[in-house]
Amino acid sequence: MGRFLMLAGILFSAGLLTAKEPAQPRHEPKPSFLANDQIKLGVDLNVGGAITYLSVAGRDDNIVNNWDWGRQIQMSHYAGPVPFVVGDKKPADHWKHLGWNPVQAGDDFRNPSKVWDSRNDGKEIYVKCAPMQWPLNNVPADCTFESWISLEGSTAKVRSKITLNREDKTFYPARMQELPAVYVNAPYHRLMTCKGEKPQTNEKLSQITYVPTRDQPWTSWFAGECWAALVNDDDFGLGVCHPGCHRFSGGFAGKPGPGGTHDSSTGYLAPNFVEHLDHHGEYEFTYFLIVGKLADIRTEALKRLPKPAIPSWTFTKDRQNWYYLNARDSGWPIQNGLAVELSKEDPQLISPTFCVPAADVPMFRLAAAFKGKEPKAQLFWATHEKPGFAEARSLTFLLNPDGEYRDYAIKLAGHPEWKGTITDLRFDPTPSGAERTSIKIKSMALGK
Question: Which CATH architecture describes the domain 312-447?
Answer without folding.
Answer: Sandwich (2.60)
